[in-house]
Amino acid sequence: MAEFSSPFFLCLLLVGLSIHCQHVLGQEDEVNGQKKTNPPEQHFQAKGNTTGENMAYHKIGPSNADFAFRFYRQAASQEDGKNVCFSPVSISTAFAMLMLGAKNTTLRQTLEAFAFNLTEIEEKEIHDGFRHLLHMLNQPDSGVQLSMGNALFIKDGLNVHPKFLEDVKSFYESEAFLSNFQNPPEAEKQINDYIEKKTEGKIANLVKDLDPDVLMVLVNYIFFKAYWKSPFFEHMTQEDHFFVDSKTSVKVKMMHQKGFFGIYHDETLSCWVVEMPYKGNAAALFILPDEGKMKQVEDALLKETVRKWEQALEQRNIDLYLPKFSVSGTYKMITLLQNMGLIDIFSKRADLSGITGNPDLKVSKATHKAVVEVDENGTEAAAATVIEIMVGASMDPPPVIKLNRPFLLLRKNIRSILFMGKIVNPKAP
């Protein structure tokens, strides 16, 4: 079997803040040759209460799933007829951090857009949930390499509210570095070097054309590396047709294996569901709609639907065909999120005064990019979100499940949707 090079899943979030203030609160030291700020002592510390942490984590799970499917529908409608891929947990985590600085209507809209209801969950419980999610994702796993972290790059001289620094450190374990945004090439190199190191060289030179008015950049990274529990054998891979639509087909490298997998055919929605576990605590869920039923399945994508599928999975011996593919997706998220009710944060009405005490801030850019590659041994993928904030078993014959037409995929770990996509054309970049 050929060696598979570095299968991984990766997300990055960059948040740029453009404001004018006096100085950065917190002491400085040098980290890898960079000035690092040390936020004041945290008000909230992880208590190590397993029961409480589990409760906090489980409380944010439904909201994160709701957001994932709502965002998918927006992205799929924008990318009609194209591949879709993004990391919902990256986007949710990023905006959860921004909630720490959001006030009034801006906070309310952000909570609603990300499916949080304060009558069901308290604001602190949301951040406790993300703190526990961060802790869970960073737990050692013999079969999966997975890490998640955050960093703030702050303009030297910017007056950041100590409570904001305390909370991003306490809840999101964020590092903090001083940056010279008046010299964009220098700041770009500093941030890109950090990202390249954290992603083991998988993403380089991500930050380009940095606006000199940006005064803060927040980086959130997720690194995922896993191999199929039951890998495909390369000699079984053969060229075959993938039917993009009724009139178009492309030649792909179609992987094939016979084995036991969790499968389910949803008679109501007319689709096959196949679960492929990775080594360790992660799995991929492939959803193959019957011909002409993609829209029907997409419209029914809800956490309740996925829960029903997972509960109905039955281990059966099947003939499985899956194409090798490498796809990508890039989204300018402002319009997508505005369609989901998040409006003020992108306008002069934004209230992010919890970051600096100055209400004159807004999100000027929100960009997400993701790529994913699948082959015989596993998955290789990368994603990035950029946001800038500126002033203003059976006796029957085994079923054949051949993913040779558009299908959906979810990549999950500890009940979180790390990655979600639709493969319309495996040959499209």
Automatic annotation (TrEMBL):
Q: Gene3D superfamilies, from UniProt? A: Alpha-1-antitrypsin, domain 1 (2.30.39.10), Antithrombin, subunit I, domain 2 (3.30.497.10), Serpins superfamily (2.10.310.10)
GO cellular component entries: extracellular space
Determine if Hydrolase is one of this entry's keywords.
no
Q: From which residue to which does the signal peptide run?
A: 1-26
A GO molecular function term, named singly, is: serine-type endopeptidase inhibitor activity
Q: Which residues form the Serpin domain?
A: 69-426
Give UniProt keywords alphabetically.
Answer: Glycoprotein, Protease inhibitor, Serine protease inhibitor, Signal
CDD domains tied to this protein: serpinA_A1AT-like
The UniProt family comment states: Belongs to the serpin family.
PANTHER family per record: ALPHA-1-ANTITRYPSIN, SERINE PROTEASE INHIBITOR, SERPIN
Q: What is this protein called?
A: LOW QUALITY PROTEIN: alpha-1-antitrypsin-like
* Species of the source: Alligator sinensis
Q: Name the gene behind this protein.
A: LOC102375789
